[in-house]
Structures are given as C-alpha cells and as structure tokens.
Specification:
heterodimer; A: about 475 residues; alpha/beta; Rossmann fold; 2 domains; elongated; B: about 350 residues; Purple Acid Phosphatase, chain A, domain 2; six-stranded mixed beta sheet; 20 strands
Chain lengths: ~475, ~350
C-alpha cells in the first residue's frame, strides 16, 4: 500500500520518505518506478484532486491510455461543457419537459441525434447506479466482517469445549482402567494382598479397601459416561454456529454477486464517456439547416418553439467553438513541439484526427506523431480550461512524454514552464534523459522506487538553477 | 591584469538532426565557436581564463565534446603555459548523483586547471596576487551554504559563479559586489552587466531550445582589466540565426500569403542557405493551412533549419472588440435566419445560459 505521508520539500538537499504527492510548486520530474507504481501514483493523484469528476480527472491526469481520436472527442466535449453546454442542455430539457405539444422532441429528431441522445440519457444513470451498488457492497462487506467475527468466536468456543470434553473423557478412562486393574489384583490375591498404598498385608482391612475401590470405580465410570455423552454431543457443530456459517456463506455469495455487478457497471462507465463524445462530435458536424428545416417549413407557433430552436443552435455553436478553439490551440502547440514541421491539426470527415504538414493533411501515422499530438492536445485543454475559469491546481503528465522525439522533449519542457502561470504545479513522469538534457528547467526531481522491504519510497531533490543575491 | 571570462560553451549540444561526416552539424558549430574563442584568448594572453558553467551541454556528454574541451585546454597550455584555467560546473555539467564527479572531474586533475563540480573552492595564485573563488551549480542549489569570502591577502579577488541573479528569492549565495574586483557569472545566454563588476558573458553560440530570442544578440566572451575595471566584449561568429518579421494573414486576400512567404524568405540578406531561419505567420486559421501547401519544402532544403511558426492573430483594439454575448447572439441570428427580429431575445437567452459571457 502506498502511503501519502508528507515529505517536507522546503529544505534544500535530498530527502527520502514514503511516497508523497504533496510537492512544492513548480515543475517536478518523477523518475524511476515501474509501471504499476506509476499507475498507482497516477490513480492516487487523480482521485485526490478530481474525486469523481471525470472532466477534472481528464484535465488533471489525462484521458488515460486512449488513442488520438478518442482523446480528441473527449477534449471537445469537455471544453464545450466548460463553456456552458451543461447549462444549455438543462434549459433544453426544461423546455422539452415543460412543453405541452405531443411529439415535442421533434427538434431532437430532426437533428438526427435522437438515438445517441437517448443512449446518453440512459447511460447517464450509470454513475448513480454504480454509487448505489457500491454503497450496498460496502454495507454487505461490513456485515460480512461482523458475521465473520462472530463465526470465529463461536467456532473457537466450540472447539475449546470439544477439546475440554475429550480431555476429561480420556482422563476418566485412564482412571477407570487403573482402578479396574487394582480391583482385579485384590480379588485374585484375597486378604493376603499387600496394600497398594503402604505395602502392608491388608488382612482384616481387605473387604473395606475393596469396597472403597469399587465405589470409586463406579463413580469414575459414571462421570466418564457423562463426558462421553458431552463429547458425542460436541462432535456436531452447535446450531448457532451452523446458523452463523450459513449466514456467512450466503453473505459471501451475495458479495461476490454484488462485486461482479459493481465491476460490470464500472466497466460500462467508459461507454458513457464514449457516447457523450460521439454525441458531441455528431452535433459539431451537424448542419444547422437540417435542424431548422421545421422552423422554415412552418414558422414556430409559439415562444417555446423559438426558445428551443435557439437553444439547440446555441448548443451547436458552443460545440463548434470548442472544436475550433481546440483545433487552433492544439495546432499551435504541435507546431511548436515539432519545430515548425507540423503546421496544424484537423479532423477527417469520419472524425479521425489529422496533422497538416507541408504536403497537406494526413492521418497520424507513427507512434511519435501520436505522442506529440496527444501531448499538444493535453496542453491545449489545460490552457483553454483556464480561459473558461477552470483551474487545475496540479496536473500530471505521463505516458506520452517519453515517446516524443528528443528535440520535442526539450520544447515540451519549455512549454510546461510557460504553463506554470496557469497551473502552479506540474508533475511529469519521465525517464532520466530529459534531466540530463535540461535539469535546470525542473524545480524538483522525485525519484520513485521500492525499497528492499517492498515499500514504495520517494527521494525528493531540489533542482532548478541556484539563485544568487548580489548587491 | 586581464582576465578572460567565458561561459555556457555547451560542448556536445545537438539539434535539428542534421549530420555531416557522422557528426551533428550544430555540435560541430559549437565546437568551432569554442576553438575560435580559444584562438582569440591566445591573442589576448590574459592572466587567467575563467569558465562560468555549462561547459558541456549535458552531464554525460558525447566523447567528441570531451575531445573538443581537451584540445582547447591543450592549445592554451602549449601557448600560455602559466595561465590557469578555472571552471565552475553549471547545471548541465552536474550529474544528479551527489557522489558523481561529473565530466569536469577528469579535467580537474590536469596541471594548471581547476574544475569544480561538488563544492565551492578558493584558489590563490601568489605570483599573480590573485584569489579566485569557484562556486559551482551544486553549491547554490543544495546545502550547506557555501563559504564565499574574498581573500584579504590577495590584491585581486575574483568570483566565478553559476546561477540566476534574483534579489527576491531565498538564495544560498549572497554577495556584496563591492568585496570583489570581478564577478564572472554563467547560466544566462545573453551578455549583460548585472552591477558594476558583475557580468554574464553569455553563450558562445545560440544554443537555446528556441534560438530566436538570441538571433539579434552577438555572441562571444568578455575580458576584464582588473586595474581599470574595464570590460571588453570579443565577438565569436557562429551560425547565423534569422528571425523574420511576422506575416499577418489577410483574410480578404488569402492568396497573398504564398506570395508574402516567398517574398520574405527571398529577402534574407545572403539567402537562407545553411542558416537557421524562423518565419512567423499570424492568424492563419487551421482550415486554411492548405494555402501553404507545396511552398515550403524547397526552403526547408536550403536552410539548415526552417521553422514555420504559426501565431495567433494580433489582438483587436478595444474599440473593435465585440462582447462575447453579442457575438454569440449574432451568430444565433444567422443560424435562425428567419428570426433576426428577435436579436434582443436571443441576447438575453445567451446571457441567461452562459452568464460568464455577459462581460
């Protein structure tokens, strides 16, 4: 388990401590650590800062391991949401549900996205369903822990009692066997037999000693029988223990079922994101004239119709603005990252991102191109989010950076430094080569690793350029 | 007594991926600039040569960079055997591991050479009556605070340091310039006088990730006559870097863009051949990038590196600015072509739904 205990980063020099995510402001390089450790840090980071907000999570920790097309669609949709799309959607919904005309959804039908919209509406119930199921699962697990505790206690009691009965039974059997041997010896030897205690001849005391031994033997046999019955009784688990066992088994079965359900719902969450992205892109590409056909064919009959059409147009414009702003800004960043070799970005008719070079636009071909595109898109979204008043206190950049070409890495670090005015803390997962190439541009270097006991640690070191005060 | 102050040599710097005889062209440029500087130093014959950091471009430089420095030092040793060379490591010469001496460590063993990476060092030359304190990068970033005091027994006290001068930030190194006859600084690629007697010499070549800011700056090194306190700049001619004036995109005459690009690139004095060139185009919408199709490849072949930078359009003046809500409402009017008489209602709708656009 990764600890998030604090590591002081204010003091100069290297410090080592449990893995820390509370770093100082500036640009931090996170080096070392294997894939799982990096993923763990990334997850923790995103969870801590974004909670359950998928949009903020995308801004802070990136879209995850998705291709350029997916990342592009999501970025357009999220940016449009930040510029007011959600508010417009609510208004549209209010107008539709407040409408009295039958078939009031005609505008949506006209726009050709009704099916998608319906699917999005349906999928939007997923997060709530997931929350409910997860809550149920947590309650079931709590019950299981309680029942498990009771079961353990009851089981221990039963075992202890059975062991106790068995011990007593064995002791009585031994004593009975011993007494029987003595009685047999006395009966065979008669009054000339030596006393088993003092070794003198019993003579006239023979009968009384024999009587005492017989009484003791009978008493031992009687008590031993009781322990025999007790042991036989305890060979079977007591009913309340059997009840608890049954309850525990049933709970575990329910938990298993519930866990599967939660996982099933969680696995479907990306469908929501994907459907929302697809819907957004469908609406960007939608021709305004199509949705306005109804309006032109027969003029709107009342204010509600006009309002709805205006809202629908506003929705399209917001998506279109987001699309254009992202195209423009991503293109600028990619142009800079590639030293001007890439002029800009675009999208094909089927929604596939393209890059524009001297010879024209073409689809993304190589891994380096995809990495540069994703990196530029990420910076563009962070930049534009700030313009919408959405400020991420920290962002974490991961897998794409190391796939950039060496010159692009240097330029990327330069761009990240310029972004510090918008985001005060930027954490970059990278290999050590960039630290060799430009160590002075990082404010902190955090070396991640796992110690010999298997615990993750972070070695925090001040980087950057020394400050000189000269007067 | 004259001292030479060099900094930011960045030996081993590589960029743009162009190779000549198996060597990166820019790496060869940087090595050439260093050897030019050495030749000039030989002519000046100073009493000491100071190098204020970033001797190499990275803590694990290519072998060719080590050879370039060794050759330079050997040339100095042969021609000026009594002239000491003092080097303080910069960020680029400093490996992350505190026990690693870095590439300068090997040169510290040579006679007449002082090259510090780990800690501050004070060196006294009694013959010259000169005391030099070398403060490397690591001393100014990590504790403990370096002990930096002039030597009262020396006639001349000089400090060689690496870092950025910042009066506000907490710093490990604080100096009174009056205590020193000369302070030689490294890290900034621009030559500048911070205070009287406190100088950045600047880099010998334009080696930044974006060299355009340095395009107009003459590169070279400084000498200082400690008697008079006068400094002199000695230029070194590196590969030309040309940053051209931006070309604004004219939306009403898009075809002009191609012509302007060809004109501007054709107007570079001496041509763009083998130069590092940047051309900037302002306000070209992503949808019209095809206007540049086929224009650039020829120029890219001719220049060592042609960077085509696409910038945002210059901001409109305040009088031309239209409120975002008004702009959006106008667009809605266009979308709902038959409802233009309802502009005010649409404006109200926009402001209601997108309150942030009211401003």
């Amino acid at each position: 388990m990764v600890s998030v205990d604090s590591v002081a980063t204010g003091a100069a020099g290297a410090k080592e401590g449990p893995l820390d995510l509370q770093l100082g402001a500036g640009l931090t390089a996170l080096v070392g650590g294997d894939g799982p450790l990096r993923s763990e840090v990334m997850d923790r980071f995103a969870r801590r800062l974004a909670q359950d907000d998928e949009r903020l999570q995308t801004l802070i920790a990136g879209p995850g391991t998705v291709g350029p097309a997916h990342a592009w669609r999501r970025a357009v949709r999220i940016l449009a949401q930040w510029t007011g799309l959600d508010g417009v959607d609510k208004e549209i919904s209010a107008v539709i549900h407040g409408g009295s005309r039958a078939g009031g959804d005609s505008l949506w039908s006209d726009s050709g996205v009704e099916g998608l919209r319906g699917r999005v509406q349906e999928l939007r119930r997923l997060p709530e369903a997931l929350r409910v199921k997860a809550r149920e699962l947590r309650a079931l697990r709590a019950d299981a822990v309680e029942v498990g505790g009771d079961l353990e206690v009851a089981n221990m009691d039963w075992l202890r009692e059975r062991q106790d009965a068995e011990t007593h039974l064995l002791a009585y059997r031994d004593r009975a066997r011993e007494l029987k041997v003595r009685l047999h010896q006395l009966e065979e030897g008669g009054s000339d037999t030596a006393c088993p205690t003092c070794d003198r001849v019993l003579s006239e005391r023979f009968e009384s000693v024999l009587e005492v031994l017989r009484e003791e033997w009978e008493s031992v046999v009687q008590d031993g029988s009781w322990w025999k019955r007790r042991k036989d009784q305890l060979d079977l688990k007591p009913p309340h223990l059997q009840d608890l066992e049954g309850k525990s088994l049933r709970l575990h079965a329910t938990i298993e079922e519930s866990t599967e359900e939660v996982e099933r719902l969680r696995a479907r969450l990306p469908e929501l994101t994907e459907a929302e992205d697809t819907l957004a892109m469908a609406q960007v590409g939608e021709s305004p004239s199509k949705s306005d056909e109804g309006g032109r064919a027969g003029r709107p009959t009342d204010e509600r119709d006009l309002r709805r059409r205006a809202l629908e147009a506003l929705r399209r414009e917001l998506l279109s603005d987001a699309f254009e702003a992202l195209t423009d800004r991503t293109g600028r960043y990619l142009n800079h990252l590639t030293s001007g070799r890439v002029l800009g970005v675009g999208v094909t008719g089927d929604g596939e991102p393209t890059i524009v070079r001297d010879e024209g636009a073409r689809r993304i071909q190589s891994d380096e191109e995809a990495a540069a595109y994703l990196f530029a898109l990420r910076l563009a979204l962070v930049d534009l989010a700030a313009g919408c008043g959405v400020h991420a206190p920290e962002i974490l950049l991961g897998d794409t950076f190391d796939r950039l070409e060496p010159d692009a890495k240097l330029r990327a670090v330069g761009l990240l430094r310029t972004l510090l005015v918008r985001v005060p803390k930027i954490l970059l997962f990278c290999r050590g080569d960039i630290l060799d190439a430009t160590p002075e541009r990082f404010d902190w270097i955090v070396e991640l690793g796992v110690d010999r006991r298997g615990f993750p640690y972070a070695r925090v070191q001040r980087s950057g350029v020394g400050k000189l005060r000269i007067h | 007594m004259i001292i030479a102050h060099l900094s930011d040599l960045h030996l081993g710097y590589r960029a743009f991926g162009h190779m000549e005889q198996g060597r990166n062209v820019r790496e060869a440029d940087v090595a050439r600039a260093f050897h030019q500087a050495i030749q000039r130093v030989l002519e000046i014959a100073p009493a000491a040569v100071l190098v204020a950091g970033d001797v190499f471009d990275r803590p694990e430089p290519p072998h060719s960079a080590l050879v370039a420095l060794a050759q330079g030092l050997q040339t100095l040793r042969e021609a000026l055997p009594d002239v000491p060379v003092l080097m303080a490591a910069g960020a680029r010469d400093t490996p992350p591991g505190p026990a690693d001496p870095g590439p300068l460590g090997a040169f510290d063993t040579l006679a007449g050479v002082e090259a510090v990476t780990a800690t501050t060092r004070s060196v006294h030359y009694s013959k010259l009556n000169l005391n030099v304190v070398l403060v490397p990068h690591r001393s100014t970033v990590q504790g403990p605070r370096p002990v930096v005091v002039p030597n009262p027994d020396a006639r001349w006290n000089v400090l060689v340091g690496y870092g950025s001068v910042d009066e506000e930030a907490a710093s490990l190194l604080s100096l009174d310039s009056g205590d020193w006859d000369y302070v030689a600084l490294g890290h900034e690629h621009f030559r500048r006088e911070v205070l009287p007697g406190v100088h950045y010499a600047g880099a010998l070549e334009r080696v930044g990730a974006t060299p355009w800011e340095e395009a107009a700056e003459e590169k070279g090194f400084l000498t200082c006559d400690l008697e008079s306190g006068q400094t002199r700049f000695h230029p070194i001619h590196g590969r030309p870097v040309v940053s051209l004036e931006p070309i604004p995109f004219e939306a009403d005459r898009p075809e002009r863009l191609r012509e302007r690009v060809i004109e501007v690139l054709g107007e570079v004095p001496g041509g763009i051949e083998e130069k590092i060139v940047r051309i900037r185009i302002q306000g070209l919408p992503p949808g019209q990038l095809d206007l540049l199709e086929g224009v650039l490849p020829e120029y890219r072949r001719r220049a060592l590196h042609l960077e085509v930078q696409l910038d945002d359009a210059p901001p409109l003046s305040l009088s031309q600015e239209v409120k975002p809500s008004v702009r959006m409402a106008s667009r809605l009017v266009e979308c709902l072509a038959d409802q233009s008489d309802n502009f005010d209602a649409l404006l109200e709708l926009v402001q209601e739904c997108l309150p942030e656009r009211r401003a």
